[in-house]
Amino acid sequence: MTYDVAKIRADFPILAREVNGKPLVYLDNGASAQKPQVVIDTITRAYSMEYANVHRGLHYLSNLATENYEAVRGIIARFLGVKDEHEIVFTSGTTEGINLVAYGWAMPRMQAGDEIVLTVAEHHANIVPWHFLRERQGVVLKWVDVDANGDLDPQAVIDAIGPKTKLVAMSHMSNVLGTVFDVKPVIDAAHAQGVPVLVDGSQAAVHMPLNLDALGADFYAITGHKLYGPSGSGAMHIKAARMAEMRPFMGGGDMIREVHRDVVTWNDPPMKFEAGTPGIVQQIGLGAALNYMMGVGMENIAAHEARLTAYARERLAGLNWLTVQGNSAKKGAIFSFTLDGAAHAHDISTVLDKKGVAVRAGHHCAQPLMEHMGVTATCRASFAMYNTEAEVDALVDALELCHDLFA
Q1: Half-sphere CA count of 256, side-chain side, radius 13 A
Q2: Residue 174: which of 364, 43, 14 has the closest Cα?
Q3: Distance of CA 367 to the CA centre of its chain
Q4: How far is residue 368's CA from residue 239's CA, in Å, rounded to a whole number?
Q5: Angle 108-186-203 (CA atoms, 0-180°, nearest 5)?
Q6: Rounded to an integer, what is the distance from CA 379 to the centroid of its chain?
């Protein structure tokens, strides 16, 4: 199949606009991706013609909204390669999903001295919930470093697992380095020792086909706003056996079966973990986004982004005054960089913005990794299914202007 990037770009209305008098070159996809028209139309229709609260109503609109909302569970399961859609818990995104596991699964079964193995490359969303357990229950956090190329040796993670390890929590793809981590050997080795594994799939799910049933992680988190869907949408895949071990994280709404003065009984999973009025339209929009991605084909998206990554790697390597953080052979379409000299990442991003090029600047919610790399901040250009080689050239041209200004 020919990958028609021009046709794909036409599906994203915002890409036709200008910024500061220049065509928009949107390279901040690692933070949030833009939305195709089908998602915008789905959200508009849901609010304007189909909106009602879900599950509890008996009228036409409530039934329609419930049907549309619950259908997304199956869409997510298909997208992730999960046979049992009842293993899909709706969340507002990865942060809520990981906190759900921290409060609902980890907190009741961990005590002082128990260990959680993490990598230094984690996003804060996969660090801070575990610090809660460290502060409140005396849980020990064990860290595994990446090497100079940004690679993570699976054996190093496996070696960090000991008799007190109760959980391994790691990213599938670094949001800073773009490195795709080989999580499967870690999952298999951890399971051989009776240790569950949580995987943060926020970046990986956007860039590659997934088969979570084959991967075998106990918990796998995705977030909708990076998947061309709305903010406030997402999901957590939780194996049924782990769901049975979990207590509810929040109380209220559809997570109950009965409530009395002296007793309360919980609903069955996954509803047991979905309290309150949910993000109805957000999840419906996510379903439209995932259907759109599957229509293009995840293998096709991955192949297109691999070509972009190779081209960007080559072009950026020609700038001998620019340092790219992480140069793994397993690198995906994310490039974090600094300029030699005194130019701060924020200054670089401001100059790039004047040329219509949108990148991220800062610590990217990954301060332990920044400390490990010996920098306080980087610029990050993160590519998506709609980006082009011409936009790589625009990035390089803007960086050359930066060099001229700050040299």
Answers
A1: 12
A2: 364
A3: 17
A4: 29
A5: 85
A6: 19
Question: Which structural domains are found in the chain, ordered by start?
Answer: 5-30+297-406 (3.90.1150.10), 41-295 (3.40.640.10)
Average pLDDT, the chain: 96
Catalytic residue among 365, 370, 381, 399: 365
Residue 379 appears among annotated catalytic residues: no
Q: Residues, the chain, total?
A: 407
Q: Does the predicted TM-score (pTM) go above 0.85?
A: yes
Find out whether 160 and 309 touch, Cβ atoms under 8 Å: no
What is the DSSP track for 240-305? HHHHTTPPPSS-SGGGEEEE-SS-EEEPPTTGGG--SS--HHHHHHHHHHHHHHHHH-HHHHHHHH
Q: What is the pLDDT of residues 26-39, one digit of tens each?
A: 999 999 999 999 99
**Interatomic CA distance for residues 151 and 142, integer angstroms:** 18
Closest alpha carbon to 29 in 206, 251, 285? 206
Which residue do the tokens 């301060």 mark?
367
